[in-house]
Design a protein that fits this description.
The protein has four helices and eight strands. It is an alpha/beta fold. The protein has a six-stranded mixed β-sheet with strand order 3-5-4-6-7-8, sandwiched between helices. Strands 1-2 form a two-stranded parallel ribbon. Strand 6, helix 4 and strand 7 form a beta-alpha-beta unit.
């Protein structure tokens, strides 16, 4: 099967859609480009994905993992840390300069998917005792879909998704995976 996805909606819904699709079918994702009001990808201009990954080793044996995706905006880490359990290990995947115009080339989505899958697999292998994951995502809708596609339904613990509602992120959806027990 092949799918073309033109996502517009809350990022939690996009992440959940990606989870339901899995990373097995061929999925082409598109971004709506506001300035020119089109779904068509602009001509390639040598755009680099520009992702940085940081897994903070702040908890020895975490039962919670938090993944912060900072692609369009920076996330207020102090607010996030204060709302998560004390035994949470956190990590971030982001760009050095988050902005809403970050996503301009489909290769950026593929790189985001590959890097996210690698981080998720590393966490499953290094911290299998984690009983719950938290995804706080500040990025474009197609990126949310590709992130959701990287959640492995058989080995990932339950995943809590959050939406931004000024001035905080609020819990929006829990994905109960078959890896939940």
């Amino acid at each position: 099967s092949r799918f073309a996805v033109f996502p517009l909606g809350p990022v939690s819904a996009c992440i959940y859609l990606g989870y339901l699709l899995t990373n097995r079918p061929t999925v082409r994702l598109f971004q709506y480009h506001r300035d020119v009001q089109t779904w068509k990808w602009p001509s390639s201009d040598g755009v680099s994905p520009g992702l940085s990954i940081d897994v903070v080793k702040n908890v020895e044996s975490p039962t919670n993992m938090a993944f912060l995706f900072e692609l369009s905006f920076r996330i207020d880490r102090s607010r996030i840390i204060s709302m998560l359990p004390n035994d949470t290990r956190s990590g971030s995947i982001g760009t050095p300069d988050p902005q809403t115009s970050w996503l301009r080339d489909p290769r950026q989505i593929r790189t985001l998917g590959a890097e996210t899958r690698e981080v998720f697999e590393d966490c499953i292998n290094h911290w299998p005792q984690a009983q719950q994951w938290h995804i706080i995502y500040a990025g474009p809708a197609p990126g949310g879909v590709i992130v959701g596609q990287q959640l492995n339904p058989t080995v990932t613990p339950p995943v809590r998704l959050y939406e931004y509602s000024y001035p905080n992120h609020i819990e929006s959806l829990v994905i109960e995976t078959s890896g939940s027990g």
